[in-house]
Amino acid sequence: MDFETLATGYGLLEGPRTDEQNRLYFSDVRGGGVFRRSPDGQIETLIPTDRKAVGGIALNEGGGMLVTGLSLARWDEHSGQVTEIFSDWDGKPLFGLNDLTIDDQGSIWVGSFGCDINKFDFKSTPPPGSLFRVDPSGQVTHLWEGVEVTNGLGFSADRSLLYHCDSTTRAVWVYEVRADRTVSDRQLFAKLPDGMPDGMTVDVEGGVWVAVVAGSGEVVRFKPDGTLDQRINIPAKTITSVAFGGPDMCDLYVVTANNDQRDLKGTVFRARSDIPGLPVPKAKF
């Protein structure tokens, strides 16, 4: 794949999403803020840089978006206000929420950290985080506990499977999604050939694309049976997330963190894929 650079000079980029106008949304976890790039290359700041650690972005039906961080919050495009939706569980503040995905009912599926991830030394197994579903009504359902370092989430086309990247296990896991939208205990889907998984996305053939962080600078694609299909080199070392977009869903967006290639820093890349991606539904909050 040939990658073009769309934006650069950031810290640690996350959460890529595109809308019907082919505008790209992304966040800077390290430097703060949420941004939107228009097809003509103009970039605007939607959420100021004083809001850091936004790892997941969901576009909202009717406008605005939902973002993670220390909480799940809704951003209103007209007022610019950010409203907290989900910030504590079992009477305690959350340590942080990371990547998310959305189902056909407009609910958010999101993973939490079990400790302050910025203070964890990664030399031991972290306290367990959880998987939650947050419905548009505000109801929160605890689905599963035992995630080490939660990252990318994505559904299969028929929504019967939920894929979940757990970074320190160096693997992608999969849950069966029941009719009541609870999940089975997770099972191993695929081990990474190198590095740790970060963000992920799914294509129309059921392929699972995974950004490899702390590895050799690549995105890997697994077939629906979990076997390794492709290893795609990216012109950066720290790959944080991947998403499909564009009118035909064949634009592959890859975002990175600043790394040894200091001229690139946190960068947005784009390439063309032969396989279209699955559209991600909008939230309905």
Adjacency order of strands in the biggest sheet = 1-26-25-24
Strand elements, count: 26
What does the main sheet amount to?
4 strands, antiparallel
Shape: globular
Order of helices and strands: EEEEEEEEEEEEEEEEEEEEEEEEEE
Poorly predicted ranges: none
Return the CATH topology. Answer: Neuraminidase
The percent of residues in helical segments reads under 10%
What is the CATH C level class, in words?
Mainly Beta
Strand residue percentage = over 45%
Report the mean per-residue pLDDT as an integer: 96
Domains, number: 1
The first-to-last residue Cα distance is 37 Å
Radius of gyration from the CA trace? 17 Å
Number of helices: 0
What CATH architecture would you give? 6 Propeller
Going by helix content, strand content and strand pairing, the class is: mainly beta
CATH homologous superfamily (4th level) name: TolB, C-terminal domain
Oligomer: single chain
Topology summary:
Blueprint: E1 4-10, E2 13-18, E3 24-28, E4 34-37, E5 43-47, E6 57-59, E7 65-67, E8 72-75, E9 82-86, E10 88-89, E11 92-93, E12 97-102, E13 108-112, E14 129-134, E15 140-147, E16 150-155, E17 161-166, E18 171-176, E19 187-191, E20 196-202, E21 208-213, E22 218-222, E23 228-233, E24 239-245, E25 251-256, E26 266-272
Antiparallel strand pairs: 1-26, 2-3, 3-4, 4-5, 6-7, 7-8, 8-9, 10-11, 12-13, 13-14, 14-15, 16-17, 17-18, 18-19, 20-21, 21-22, 22-23, 24-25, 25-26
